[in-house]
Amino acid sequence: MATMWRRAMTYLGLGPDEEYDDYDYDDVPEEPPARAAPRYAEPPVESQIGAVRPVPREREPEVQATPLRPRSSVVRPLTPQQPSPKPYALSPVSFNEAQEVADKFMAGVPVIVNLQGAERELSRRLVDFASGLCYGLHGQMERVTNHVYLLTPTDVQVSDEDRRRLEERSL
User: Fold this and answer.
1) Residue ranges of the domains in the chain?
2) Per-residue DSSP letter, 24
3) What is the spatial distance between Cα 15 and Cα 11, in angstroms, rounded to a whole number?
């Protein structure tokens, strides 16, 4: 077994240095350095038989840049703005209702979460869930009044009138 390991180490060049002392490096004849072939040298005629030669490609004509039109200072939406849906109001009594909040939010409906009657632990968990939902889907979460939050999806805007009604209703 030890002989096998010793032979393997010698084969890999990991053996003791005495194994290599009997090799005479001076007897090895040095080969002259190969001359570099010219960069675009033609291959010998024998190697051209049956060989495929690359065909140089013609340069494509350059496309003339058209001058840009001056931009107007008016910003217009690409699609006409649709009226935003009415906010969906919810007063959750268990954490299982968080899925309903997420489903409405992902459907593009603003959600009002009223936590005024909820337990403190449930309220904390739902606020954490709602803030993660808004962050993950690039929405916005804002506190309307004490324990009442408005979750707004990215492409939806709640009108000032709806905000005012929401504040009045929750007071």
Assistant:
1) 88-170
2) -
3) 8
Class assignment of domain 88-170?
alpha beta
pLDDT given at position 130: 92
- Do residues 115 and 141 lie in contact, with contact meaning Cβ atoms separated by under 8 Å? no
Q: Which tokens go with 164?
A: 């005012």
**Beta carbons of 85 and 109 less than 8 angstroms apart:** yes
pLDDT at 15 exceeding the cut of 90: no
Size (the chain), residues: 171
Phi/psi-derived region of residue 55, left when phi > 0, alpha when psi is between -120 and 50, beta in every other case: beta
Average pLDDT, the chain: 75
Contact 134, 151 (CB under 8 A): yes
